[in-house]
Amino acid sequence: MLKIENLTATVGDDAKQIINGLTLEVPAGEVHAIMGPNGAGKSTLSYVLTGRSGYEVTGGTATLNGEDLLGMDPEERAAKGMFLSFQYPVEIPGVPVMTFVRTAMNSQRKLRGEDEISAPDFIKKSREIAKKLKLDAEMLKRPVNVGFSGGEKKRLEIYQMMMLDPSFLILDETDSGLDIDALKTVAEGVNAMRSPERGMLVITHYQRLLDYIKPDKVHVLAAGRIVKTGGPDLAHRLEAEGYDGILGEAV
Ligand code: ADP
Ligand code: MG
Ligand code: MG
């Protein structure tokens, strides 16, 4: 599904190389975790995959379902089903959550050549998902992220994710700063979105999220490339031994 081969990418005005020959494959239906020390390039990878400006690919390939991702603009990638969660959710004063999500849904549909979702269909879908997430309908009328608690922001993000129904999900340290209840909410949302057609990449600095989201594989990213791949046990080893031992082995 997602296939990255020998990817290199630079960041910023001084074109510092952050991604250094990264190769990774996530088949449809699987959840893979990426762990790694601070500054390894985890967030950079997620930005390169979603096409954020300021990040330049200098070599290698990345495809989603066989289609070249790197040649598409960010909106096209989103329309193809790439979804990146935010480490730090942005506030959008004046724009209600529902309006924001409906606009995003419709712009993606338009790019795919589909009709806009009708108001009744949108409301029906929104109600179903809000019910599943135990979200108060009143919350969905409030401006995006303004005045929401950390846990509420996460639930709203999962609401957005479920509404948009992406085919590939990237969660970048979506667990940072969350208490255990919010962490479980995130995990339940992610687990509910597991499906044979959908792939997921869960980027996390800590093992604890992976107690709730059981990954099929765990990759260690260091200095801009994947240096080790294993099963869920690898995450426990990293927690117990730190990155140094495992990175020493990998070299
Ligand atoms: P991680 O998410 O693994 O902690 P990042 O991808 O955020 O790491 O950062 C990788 C490296 O790239 C760091 O050394 C960081 O300082 C650098 N970096 C990230 N963004 C920029 C930028 N816009 N300009 C210059 N350097 C950057
Ligand atoms: Mg970091
Ligand atoms: Mg990061």
TrEMBL record:
Keywords: ATP-binding, Nucleotide-binding. InterPro entries: AAA+_ATPase (IPR003593), ABC_transporter-like_ATP-bd (IPR003439), FeS-cluster_ATPase_SufC (IPR010230), P-loop_NTPase (IPR027417). Residues 2-248 form the ABC transporter domain. One of its GO terms (molecular function) is ATP binding. Signal peptide: none annotated. CDD domains: ABC_FeS_Assembly (cd03217). It comes from the Bacteria. Belongs to the ABC transporter superfamily. Ycf16 family. This is FeS assembly ATPase SufC. It comes from Hyphomonas adhaerens MHS-3. The lineage of its organism: Bacteria, Pseudomonadati, Pseudomonadota, Alphaproteobacteria, Hyphomonadales.
